[in-house]
Design a protein that fits this description.
Layout (H helix, E strand, L loop, with lengths): L21 H9 L5 H8 L3 H10 L10 H7 L1 H8 L5 H8 L3 H10 L3 H4 L17 H17 L33 E3 L5 E4 L4 H18 L4 E4 L12 E6 L10 E5 L3 E6 L2 H16 L5 E3 L1 E5 L6 E4 L19 H9 L4 E6 L1 H4 L13 H16 L4 E8 L2 E2 L1 H6 L5 E3 L7 E3 L4 H4 L18 E4 L2 E8 L12 E2 L1 H6 L2 H9 L8 E2 L2 H7 L3
Parallel strand pairs: 2-3, 2-4, 4-6, 9-10, 9-18, 10-11, 15-17
Antiparallel strand pairs: 1-7, 5-6, 5-8, 11-16, 12-14, 13-14, 15-16
Helix pairs in contact: 2-3, 2-6, 4-5, 10-11
Length: about 525
């Protein structure tokens, strides 16, 4: 067990004097979050008794029907709501979890155990019983107060925001004006000449062509430059040119717009992708799908624009593909907004089996690596790198070290009240038995930031080839904040790169990404 869930009778739970009985507090706090049949099982009642007790409190049937998604995505709310109401055994029954799963969630799900006070308060089991006259009168007052607060409006369903980005874009082919002098029409058919062998570019071109046809009915055609005959003339034409240039950042690009010719030139395919996204945005801006002829040089303001998924489940996202924190539609929306990095939490012993630690700690690590590889491959199509947030080493209860006597250890502070595997331990410092990171374009050189023996950094999964966890070496904080040696050097010497490891909201990304 990675966490001691034992409770002591002298550490009692908070009282609930605002409810006539604790049974009613359990029903109130879990109504609409946990199925009625589960509540009945936990409280030792029939489903009809639970419904009647809920109705007496003023709770409505219309508030139910979303319990499955609450148990799947809102389990932290359920745990917090019942932390001072139910003993561990009944809490497990309410969640439908094993004790090991609860222990992992409390310990590794964004320090939930710390937020809950680093202890499980002691409480007696809660069971259903019939109310006496005094309790019935207090219940009536609660029902009347609840009725007074109801305005009859239809509330948004829980977690409905997860579906908002999946809604198809409406066709925008309502032109507010005709093209002006010197403007190029983007709502007519064009041919795109593109080089071969660039998967990110191919994906970006497909999205670009699809958007213009969906929004304006324009039939843009992509042809590989190698398939064109030397003397073939095509008008109008967009030419894609990838010209390696070490002085340019990968997303910098130049757009030259002529009467019947468009040229996008960049040092890397991600730069071409950003140019295509800008053109698609211009076509929709103001319902006028036109572009003034001229030269547009767009350079990177912030070369690292990382964001977290607002719909992610924090705990173990790589093992639950059905709870994908970054679905395809969201990746596309983020990329269009200028995001080029996403991050998610990770625990090293879940990703790789570490020498000297019990094998059960790394159970299913192969599936997590496969999930990470799959996410990195998908994100790479949108010019997005994947970053793993690592906070290492992890604390373990003292009982863990009684069985693992060969590990070095240090005692944590008052908040932790646990023992850390010391950074100097062989299992943590050397990791010579670790498998390589996934071989994917979405992965690159990992960088850690050491802070008094603790690893608290982003493990970069950008583009630069595979690396091994066993090869990790400490670096200074400035280099870690940049995410890679190259980005660190560029930050120091380039006037164009004026940020490091920025955590930005989507609005800031749109403003600060390119210029």
């Amino acid at each position: 067990m990675i966490l001691d869930l034992r409770t002591e009778p002298d550490k009692k739970a908070l009282a609930t004097p605002h409810f006539p009985t604790r049974m009613q507090a359990v029903i109130w706090r879990n109504w609409g979050l946990v199925p009625v049949e589960r509540l009945a099982l936990v409280l030792g009642a029939s489903e009809e008794q639970i419904r009647e007790a809920a109705s007496d409190l003023g709770l409505e049937v219309s508030q139910t029907g979303n319990e499955a998604i609450w148990l799947e995505r809102g389990y932290i709310t359920i745990i917090r709501a019942n932390w001072h109401l139910l003993p561990v055994e009944q809490l497990l029954e309410l969640l439908g979890w094993t004790e090991d799963r609860l222990a992992f969630t409390l310990k590794e799900d964004d320090f939930l155990w710390i937020k809950l006070g680093s202890l499980k308060p002691w409480t007696e089991s809660v069971k259903y019983r019939v109310l006496n006259e005094s309790e019935q009168e207090r219940t009536r007052l609660i029902r009347e107060s609840t009725a007074a607060l109801s305005d009859g409006r239809q509330a948004e369903k829980p977690f409905d925001f997860l579906n908002q980005y999946r809604k198809p874009a409406m066709r925008e082919n309502v032109r507010v004006r005709e093209p002006g002098h010197g403007e190029i029409r983007l709502d007519i058919s064009w041919t795109i000449e593109a080089p071969s062998g660039h998967p990110v570019l191919d994906s970006a071109l497909e999205r670009f062509v699809t958007k213009l046809e969906r929004n304006w009915g324009a039939k843009w055609t992509v042809r590989k430059a190698s398939a064109l005959s030397p003397n073939e003339e095509i008008n109008p034409v967009m030419r894609i040119e990838i010209v390696p240039d070490s002085s340019q950042l990968t997303e910098d690009h130049l757009i030259v717009a002529g009467t019947d010719t468009l040229t996008i030139r960049a040092a890397a395919e991600t730069g071409i992708m950003r140019g295509l996204q800008w053109l698609a945005g211009q076509a929709c801006e103001g319902h006028a799908p036109y572009l003034m002829a001229g030269e547009y040089r767009r350079t990177t303001k912030f070369d690292m624009r990382i964001i977290y998924s607002y719909g992610a489940v924090y705990g173990d996202p790589l093992l639950t593909p059905e709870l994908d924190p970054f679905p395809e539609a969201l990746l596309e929306r983020l990329s269009d907004a200028g995001v080029n990095g996403i991050w998610l939490q990770s625990v090293l012993y879940n990703l790789v089996p570490l020498a000297g630690l019990p094998e059960e700690l790394s159970l299913n690590w192969e599936q997590r690596i496969a999930g990470l590889r799959f996410l990195a491959d998908r994100a790479a199509k949108y010019g997005i790198g994947v970053y793993l947030y690592c906070n290492e080493p992890r604390s373990m209860p003292v009982s863990f070290f009684c069985r693992q006597t060969g590990l070095a250890r240090t005692y944590g502070g008052r908040l932790c009240d646990a023992v850390h595997i010391a950074s100097g331990s062989t299992a943590i410092a050397e990791r010579r038995d670790c498998p390589p990171l996934p071989r994917s374009p979405g992965f690159g050189r990992p960088v850690y930031d050491h802070d008094v023996g603790k690893l608290d950094a982003l493990l970069f999964a950008g583009s630069g080839g595979p690396d091994e966890l066993s090869a990790l070496q400490p670096t200074n904080a400035g280099r870690s904040r940049c995410g890679s040696e190259r980005a660190y050097r560029r930050r120091r010497v380039s006037r164009k790169t004026r940020s490091a490891n920025c955590m930005l909201d989507l609005g800031m990304v749109a403003q600060l990404g390119m210029g």
